[in-house]
Amino acid sequence: VQVVESGGGLVQPGGSLRLSCAASGVTFSSYAMSWYRQAPGKERELVARISSGGGTINYAASVKGRFAISRDNAKNTVYLQMNSLKPEDTAVYYCYAVGGSRAVWGQGTQVTVSS
């Protein structure tokens, strides 16, 4: 079971990025998928979550209206579209898969918002 994030990078304030998380070794459509982030010196926090079928989505208050989570079960991939990025969005972003008794973290991808 493995999840691998991609798409991080350096972006200016107000810019956009799209993160991807590809899963392998799992029945992806049975897994709820989440994005978490951890900034230096801070605890890891939930950013967004999408249920296995995609019908239930939740966002942290700090990103609601700016970020959008989605999934493509045919591609075993979950996405995080991030718009209107702010310096306080700077963090390592992690993908997290939960299904049945299994839970898997990705290795993280760095997002830096700076001018």
- Fraction of residues in β-strands: over 45%
- The portion of residues assigned to helices is under 10%
Reported for the largest beta sheet, the result is: 7 strands, mixed
Write down the overall geometry.
globular
* SSE run: EEEEEEEEEEE
CA gyration radius, whole angstroms? 13 Å
Give the class from helix and strand content and strand pairing.
mainly beta
* pLDDT < 50 runs, ≥5 residues: none
How many beta-strand elements? 11
pLDDT average, as an integer?
96
User: How large is the count of helical segments?
Assistant: 0
State the end-to-end CA separation.
Answer: 37 Å
Give a structural overview.
By secondary structure, the chain is mainly beta. Helix content is 0%, strand content 54%. It has strands spanning 2-6, 9-11, 17-24, 32-38, 45-50, 57-59, 67-72, 77-82, 91-99, 102-105, 109-113. Strands 2, 4, 5, 6, 9, 10 and 11 form a seven-stranded mixed sheet that branches. Strands 1-3-8-7 form a four-stranded antiparallel sheet, with no helix packed on it. It starts with a strand and ends with a strand. The relative contact order is 0.33.
